């Protein structure tokens, strides 16, 4: 990743059929040359890459096919890397900061590289109703965590510390877990206001009778 100005960055992109949120964990099995090169460069330079939901096109390179990413994504940093057979890499990455993709180009090896603007942290939660909704959402997430600890600790989709007092962390983790289609999940990730995300997540929980 190279700096283009005080705000714009040159960011390698990994378009996927998934939505990454800040604080979310992303396991990756990397076997394509373009992404192997990207991962090695990120590890060498301690640099992030960008994860975008695929708007259209394939995850894996196909002749004549073009991958089109969503314009709002999440930066990720590699925290673990293991080497598998035939040079394959098994990565664990964590989402760090949302970004807006202003443009992108295709490198000679097929890697998409974007000009991206990092987006600010969530607008803080305000108002009695929003705080009450957050409290209800945090209680639901705490119950989910407790149940997973007892029944399937190896399948916990996120790691400690569990920041149940943080509206952004709680709303992001619930947005990852709720039975939503990818476009709805993308919309939740795009919200700049944590109150709007909490309200949307609370509505889904209420609709399913989980509050």
From TrEMBL:
Q: Which domain of life is it from?
A: Bacteria
**Mind listing the GO biological process terms from this record?**
proteolysis
* Keywords per UniProt: Hydrolase, Protease
Q: Where is the Lon N-terminal domain?
A: 8-209
Looking up Pfam families in the UniProt record yields: LON_substr_bdg
Q: Name one GO molecular function term.
A: peptidase activity
This one is known as ATP-dependent protease
């Amino acid at each position: 990743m190279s700096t283009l100005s005080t705000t714009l960055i040159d960011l390698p992109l990994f378009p996927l059929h998934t939505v990454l949120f800040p604080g979310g964990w992303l396991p990756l099995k990397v076997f394509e040359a373009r992404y192997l090169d990207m991962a090695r460069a990120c590890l060498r330079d301690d640099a992030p890459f960008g994860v975008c939901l695929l708007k259209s096109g394939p995850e894996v390179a196909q002749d004549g096919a073009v991958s089109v990413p969503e314009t709002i994504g999440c930066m990720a940093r590699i925290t673990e890397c293991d080497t598998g057979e035939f040079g394959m890499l098994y990565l664990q990455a964590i989402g760090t900061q949302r970004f807006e993709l202003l443009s992108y180009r295709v490198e000679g090896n097929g890697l998409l590289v974007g000009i991206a603007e990092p987006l600010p942290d969530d607008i803080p939660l305000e108002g009695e109703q929003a705080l009450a909704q957050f409290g209800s959402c945090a209680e639901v997430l705490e119950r989910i965590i407790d149940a997973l600890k007892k029944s399937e600790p190896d399948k916990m989709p996120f790691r400690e510390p569990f920041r149940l007092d943080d509206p952004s962390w709680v709303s992001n983790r619930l947005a990852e877990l709720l039975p939503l289609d990818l476009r709805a999940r993308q919309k939740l990730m795009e919200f700049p206001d944590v109150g709007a995300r909490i309200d949307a997540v609370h509505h889904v929980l209420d609709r399913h009778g989980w509050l």
